[in-house]
Write a structure and sequence with these properties.
There is one protein chain. This protein is mainly β and 638 residues long. The chain has one domain: TonB-dependent receptor, beta-barrel domain (Maltoporin, Chain A, Beta Barrel). 6% of the residues lie in helices and 56% in strands. The strands form five sheets. It has a 22-stranded antiparallel β-barrel. The relative contact order is 0.16. The N terminus is likely disordered. It is a multi-pass membrane protein.
Length: 638
């Protein structure tokens, strides 16, 4: 885990040989989906409507969305018994992850081949992440607090501003509804893993109803060595972690159509890693905190207003020796104020948003004898508008946003069109622009950053076809996202000796995502495949740590009181470096899980991860878990 050197990204940036044309598999996929849809349209009623918030910043039925979206429900998370948010995401289409060791170590999430710092991450609408690395602390997000995850693919800068090049991941924490309810679990497994969690949720009655949810959890593991022989700083000792967290949300109905609320999430992770062969307990302490207060009002039958004031803090302390020089700390604080107005105009929706975000960084190294050049503040003011139209079988949306910060003003826009061929079968097409703001490291880190670095820019076009009827879901999405002014490590650095972060590269993220789900003989089947070509156009190399092919298959079956399932995840070869010199082999992972419902509120969870004990690498010379098992007794968790 190497957050200690903020001038070096946790995962290398860009670099790939030309891929075979994607137009032929795309045409085949669309033809098959269209034929299947024509055959089955009207055969059964549509699936129950799924409501998505992130794609348009307002609740919207999934069958009326143009953006490519995946929703992971709390029921799916609980059923799978997954160990972390990253483990949940890696089973979704269009997503790859990289870990520098075990579950407590630095984790990167790639959407459609985009860099980890080209993805916006939200917790209940609050943006999180480090302003120095540009990456969210995925290892510190507690899965026990999560109720639902929404992933929107493609450029969303016109709705969310900087960094939404690859997409947006929004994590929703648990909320109160219905009668008061208690849930809890305790479990353990391989590598000395122990997990305990408890939560209470509910809603009080009356005119001024109060909804509440409060949860706490503790997790720890002895772990395994974060590095393997050949890695810098290799130490064969076990690198464990512990994480404590609490989350809560309260809303009050002030009057019909008027609601006030507050929410928080606090998580502290203590994780060991390898930086030398010494006996010193080399470790990081990662604090991830988010807070928000909000007011939702319906001033008129067609006018909804939402105001939110939020703060997110990402604090990373590293300890590499007993000496004062072996201690460093990098803290990011983001304060954000947003005012969103949603106006219904018949079947259409107009949305206007105003935003203010202040980023502050405090960096202390070796006792802080001198002020760090990273101790900076950046303010971004934004205004955005979007318009959604529905006309019979036609869907339209258009959005635009203006962000202004010290790097100047950036205007982004997007437009999309959808057509409903028949019940359950629709085609979509969209274009959009996006950008990523330079991180504080890329601007100010000594010997690396350049204050003249400009934002990265993206231009995306995509087309998709979806079929959703009864127990059958089919999807195909083709995208082509061209990136310019990419910030990479240039050596030599223009205008000075040595290397530096510099706007020099162009990249192309091109791919086809296929997905399918059905119910056959009582078995829920789901599969996805990504055929992609993420490459650095400047060097014509494959982007580091991203494969050209990856896929996932799962099957779930319920018989009586037993709910069981199997998952298969597969990835093709990748390269660990931008020059494509260090190859990472492809791999396939088999996971098994099952839940036995012992009584109306009690259940026993069993999960076997990497059942075939596959040896593989997500990053060169970093360890990954072998065959592991986990078992838990649950109360009130389904």
């Amino acid at each position: 885990m190497t957050h200690i050197l903020p001038g070096r990204p946790a995962a290398p940036s860009f670099a790939q040989p030309p891929a075979r044309p994607l137009s032929r598999p795309l045409a085949l996929a669309l033809a098959l989906a269209a034929a299947f849809g024509a055959q089955h349209a009207g055969a059964a009623d549509a699936l129950p409507d799924t409501v998505v918030v992130t794609a348009t910043r307002t609740p919207q039925r999934a069958d009326q969305l143009i953006a490519d979206t995946t929703v992971v429900t709390g029921e799916e998370i609980a059923r799978s018994g997954a160990g972390s948010v990253a483990d949940v995401l890696r089973r979704q289409r269009g997503i790859e992850i990289v870990r520098n060791g075990g579950a407590g170590t630095s984790t990167s999430v790639y959407l459609r081949g985009a860099n980890a710092n080209q993805v916006v991450v939200l917790i209940d609408g609050v943006r999180i992440g480090s302003s120095t690395s540009g990456v969210a602390a995925w290892n510190a997000i507690p899965l026990s607090a999560v109720e639902r995850i929404e992933v929107v693919y493609g450029p969303l800068s016109s709705l969310y501003g900087a960094d939404a090049i690859g997409g947006v991941v929004q994590i929703f924490t648990k909320r109160g509804q219905g009668a008061p309810a208690l849930s809890a679990s305790i479990g353990g497994g391989t590598y000395g893993t122990n997990q305990t969690q408890a939560a209470v949720t509910g809603t009080s009655g009356g005119e001024h109803a109060v909804s509440y949810a409060l949860g706490v959890a503790h997790e720890e593991a002895d772990g395994f060595s974060a590095t393997r022989s050949g890695a810098f700083g290799y130490n064969p000792d076990d690198d464990g972690y512990s994480r404590n967290n609490a989350n809560g949300r309260v809303t009050v109905q002030l009057a019909p159509g008027h609601e006030a609320g507050a929410q928080f999430l606090k998580s502290r992770l203590r994780a060991q890693y390898d930086s030398s062969a010494s006996s010193f307990d080399t470790r990081n302490t990662q604090d991830l905190d988010s807070y928000a207060v909000f007011l939702n009002d319906r001033f008129l039958p067609n006018w909804r207003s939402s105001v939110q004031a939020a703060r997110a803090e990402d604090k990373l302390a590293s300890y590499t020796s007993t000496a004062l020089s072996g201690t460093s700390r990098i803290d990011t604080r983001q304060d954000e104020l947003t005012w969103q107005n949603t106006i219904d105009l018949g079947p259409d929706t107009l949305q206007v948003l105003f935003g203010h975000r202040k980023e502050e960084v405090l960096s202390v190294t070796g006792g802080g004898a001198a002020p760090s050049p990273l101790n900076k503040t950046r303010i971004t003011n934004s205004v955005a508008a979007s318009y959604d139209m529905k006309r019979g079988s036609h869907l339209f949306d258009v959005s635009a946003r203006r962000d202004h910060a010290e790097y100047g003003g950036k205007t982004t826009g997007a437009a999309g069109y959808g057509y409903q061929f028949s019940k359950g079968l629709r085609a979509t097409a969209s274009v959009g622009t996006s950008f990523r703001a330079p991180t504080f490291n890329e601007l100010y880190y000594p010997g690396y950053g350049l204050p003249t670095n400009r934002p990265e820019r993206g231009r995306n076009a995509e087309a998709g076809l979806r079929y959703d009827i009864a127990d059958v879901e089919l999807g195909a999405n083709y995208y082509r996202n061209r990136l310019t002014d990419m910030i990479v490590t240039a050596n030599p650095c223009p205008g000075r000796a040595g290397s530096c972060a510099y706007n020099v590269n162009h990249a192309l993220l091109e791919g086809l995502t296929l997905s399918a789900a059905t119910r056959l003989a009582g078995i829920d089947l789901r599969a996805s495949a990504d055929l992609q070509d993420p490459r650095d156009e400047t060097t014509n190399k494959q982007l580091a740590r991203r494969s050209k092919r990856h896929a996932a298959v799962s099957a779930n079956y319920t018989a009586g009181q037993v709910d069981s399932g199997v998952e298969l995840q597969a990835s093709g070869r990748r390269f660990d470096d931008a020059a494509n010199n260090n190859r990472l082999g492809g791999y396939g992972l088999l996971n098994l899980y099952g839940t036995w419902n012992l009584a109306p509120e009690w259940s026993l969870l069993l999960r076997l991860e990497n059942a075939a004990d596959k040896r593989y690498e997500l990053a060169r010379n970093y360890g990954t878990a072998g065959r592991t098992w986990f078992a838990a007794i649950r109360y009130g968790i389904r």
